[in-house]
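User: Let's play a game. I give you a shape written as tokens, and you guess the letters that built it. Ready? Here's round one.
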């Protein structure tokens, strides 16, 4: 009873927050609920949905300073966890290894609560001293603590291992040692939803480049002694990606999606990496990502493609300064003027060329009526109002909202369908759809629902997953709350 009371109080607080409009239900995560009809809403529908970029927050930079819509990218990360998704793009959260584990609940907990189902990357280049450098044992411990915290707080959270600098034998040895350390310490394989890797070609010794991973000095002789000009060698880059998928398959991880969460050209133009060379490398790499498959090592859920998403470094990192010896190459916008540059135009044009013209319906927000229900005075029906808009290039025809009850084991029962809205215009026109069903269709306890949008020309949908929203109605015991119910929504 005490546990039930605590649960009631917690959910009541959530209800109050929900009624005040404090929770950002309209955000678009990289992951969404599974489709009710297998194959209807593939996870990797449009090539343009795979493109992302890395945002540099240094020097008081922020996303809203840039016309990032010109890139047509659909996701981004900024090496932090406190950013937000936009109508156009998902935000991927990163918890660095410097995070104080003792204050996870205070620092990270509220963000987890407000963003169920989001993707979290744990660490950034833990194999590199100048980034999140940790020995394999130390990283395994960090991963275990943060993974456990996230999953306990939000079981729907997606958790990814932090990307190593590059896929070389030495870096894959580092990952082997992380997996072994986790198994030895915790008695089970390291649990992971998504794998990430970075895609650079850098020398592995103490002269320049990626250095030797912490704790692996005994294996320094395995380092790849790349030369400077190899940094833009597309064939070496492709080999690294193929080898990483082979490593994943050899370790029983083929069924995990792979994100190249940072890659590009770091070396300055004066070292032989002028705009033309960077452009050719960038376009060649995305051609490879878009087309490369392997029947033995590729991701089966994505037609055996090697890589599911990728993120170019960077949106706005400053150019290399020979006096300070800081800065990089490959930025798509100029950080001083915030104007797009030639490389950014190339990026945006490539992505636009790979975006099929279609609808892009977004289920933004949901409101239940009544917001608080006592069974003894329950209405005959429960009504949901959903705000919808269309980010696509094509008008959506006869748009409907459907509400399904998730009966488990892949079975769903249709509760309600809204009246059709004849046209939802392209270009983010907002409309509201209403659907209602008998209150008697709800049972005691949790009632998991799936809300989804449908249209007559839905087969031309670009990003199908953002048409869906998971929603839970909780009916409490009579002696706790007189059979009140509480909505909890998540993407």
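Assistant: Ready! My guess for every position:
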């Amino acid at each position: 009873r005490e546990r039930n009371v605590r649960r009631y109080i917690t959910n009541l607080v959530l209800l109050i927050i929900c009624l005040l409009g404090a929770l950002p239900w309209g955000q678009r995560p990289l992951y969404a609920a599974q489709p009710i009809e297998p194959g209807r809403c593939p996870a990797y529908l449009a090539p343009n949905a795979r493109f992302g970029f890395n945002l540099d927050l240094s020097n008081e930079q922020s996303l809203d300073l840039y016309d990032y819509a010109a890139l047509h990218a659909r996701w981004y990360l900024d090496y932090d966890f406190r950013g937000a998704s936009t109508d156009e793009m998902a935000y991927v959260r990163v918890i660095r290894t410097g995070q104080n584990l003792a204050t996870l609940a205070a620092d990270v907990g509220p963000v987890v609560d407000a963003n169920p189902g989001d993707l979290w990357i744990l660490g950034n280049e833990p194999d590199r001293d100048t980034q999140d450098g940790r020995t394999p044992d130390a990283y395994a411990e960090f991963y275990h603590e943060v993974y456990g915290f996230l999953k306990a707080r939000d079981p729907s959270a997606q958790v990814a291992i932090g990307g190593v600098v590059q896929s070389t034998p030495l870096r894959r040895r580092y990952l082997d040692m992380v997996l072994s350390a986790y198994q030895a310490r915790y008695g089970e394989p390291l649990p992971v939803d998504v794998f990430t890797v970075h895609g650079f070609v850098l020398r592995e010794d103490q002269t320049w480049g990626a250095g030797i991973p912490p704790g692996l000095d005994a294996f320094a002789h395995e380092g790849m002694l790349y030369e400077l000009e190899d940094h833009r060698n597309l064939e070496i880059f492709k080999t690294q990606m193929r080898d990483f998928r082979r490593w994943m398959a050899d370790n029983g991880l083929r069924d995990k999606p792979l994100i190249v969460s940072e890659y590009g050209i770091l070396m300055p133009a004066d070292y032989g990496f002028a705009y033309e060379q960077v452009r050719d490398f960038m376009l060649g790499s995305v051609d490879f990502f878009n087309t490369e498959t392997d029947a033995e090592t590729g991701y089966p859920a994505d037609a055996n493609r090697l890589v599911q998403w990728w993120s170019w470094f960077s949106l706005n990192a400053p150019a290399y300064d020979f006096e300070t010896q800081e800065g990089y190459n490959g930025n798509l916008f100029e950080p001083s003027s915030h104007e797009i540059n030639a490389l950014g135009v190339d990026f945006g044009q490539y992505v636009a060329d790979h975006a099929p013209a279609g609808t892009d319906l977004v289920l933004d927000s949901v409101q239940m009526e009544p917001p608080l229900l006592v069974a003894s005075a329950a209405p005959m029906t429960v009504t949901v109002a959903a705000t919808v808009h269309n980010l696509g290039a094509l008008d959506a025809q006869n748009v409907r909202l459907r509400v399904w009850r998730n009966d488990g084991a892949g079975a769903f029962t249709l509760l309600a369908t809204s009246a059709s809205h004849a046209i939802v215009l392209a270009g983010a026109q907002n409309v509201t759809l209403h659907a209602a069903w008998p209150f008697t269709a709800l049972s005691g306890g949790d009632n998991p629902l799936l809300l989804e949008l449908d249209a007559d020309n839905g087969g031309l949908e670009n990003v199908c997953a953002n048409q869906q929203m998971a929603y839970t109605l909780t009916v409490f015991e009579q002696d706790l709350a007189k059979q009140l119910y509480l909505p909890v929504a998540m993407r």
